[in-house]
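Hi U.,

Before I forget, here's the chain from the pilot set. I'm dumping it here mostly so it's searchable later in email.
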Amino acid sequence: MQGMRSLYYIYVLSLFLLLSWGAHAWYTWPMDGNFNILLLVLLLFVTTSSWLYRIKNNIKLNFHPALLLAWLALMEMRCLHSGGGLHPQDLFVGGLMAYPLWVVSSDEEHIEEVLSSVIKLLAVLLVLGIALHLVLLIIGIVPSKIIRYPSSVLYAFYNYGVLLKSATEYEASGIRFQSVFLEPGYCGTLLAFLLHAVRYDFKKRENVVLLISLFLSLSLAGIITFVTGYVLNGWAERKNMTAYFAFGIILGAIVLFGINYNQGDNVVNEMVLSRIMPDEEDSQRNQRNSIGADIYFESLFETGEWLHGLGNERIAMINGEDLGTAEVSYGEDVIRGAGYKIFILKFGVLAVLVAFLFYLFVGPMWLGWTNRYAWSFLLLIIITFIPTSYPMSHSWTLPYVFGMVYASHIENKDKLNTDKLS
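Structure:
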């Protein structure tokens, strides 16, 4: 029995590492970028622990056609992300990425415990980070070891283990909480997806920790994803919309406070509201894409390169960079930014279609075309994709699979209770 619990904890840790890698936690940075030995070690560890956990618990893999199509789509997404073509190396890595998700989707019996354990592990890390974050806000930055994200010189941080603080002018506002992740946006989006996966069950303390961390991040993408998901979940559960009307009034009060308090000179207005409702000057400052990115995006459809995109190597050449180095180009004529335009420029419309099919297969096609929760999460993914496009990340795919399996578990448990009562 002790061995079983140890294996369970290893399995939970492996899923936590997948989430961490997806949101670019500092201890997973060596795995980012192209295929490397450390990425292979991580994926082999996660796959092996998932396989052992499945064997020990006698879990039969779910061979539903929709799930099989989803895993094929995920493998193809890996190939497109690496430049296209069905290369054996990319198919192998794609298979290693898909297998843990397959085990999760086949383990409805334990999904509530597994999901809760992963979130509790994350919550502990967040609580420690929040405590240190608040201390540093009071006493100021304490010198610590500086670490740099290997793929870009823009990112340099003081590393406190459970918390990163920017050591450069980029993302320099110390008021924003980002935990161990590369940016507050990565942190906020991950937390918003996990909250949708657990259906906003704030009776559990660990979920409250996620909510507090989300708002401390002041991540525009994360907060919009949370608000949108919360409303979509209410629609999915057929709840009385009176509560959501009250929720809207509270949000409206926060907006009015941010705009008017101290004549708008406050954190809420500067970090969030001004990015939603920018004036002409703010619009230029908060523009997500360079002028060059917009020009090349429009030319894609004129040159016929829209299907496969330009690819990372060609974009690096346009920017005057060496692919795989930390060099960064500036200026209006380079391709720089975030969101769906950058994703299509890199990987093409085909990659968008394959990514959409993955989420469609795991969601409505698997749970049922009339399943409201499946559609709510799919719509949330689509809406989030527009400003922040990294759909292959396990900070997106794993919470999505968690949510679908948990939803199926809840529905089957409710049916069982109804049958017992009748």
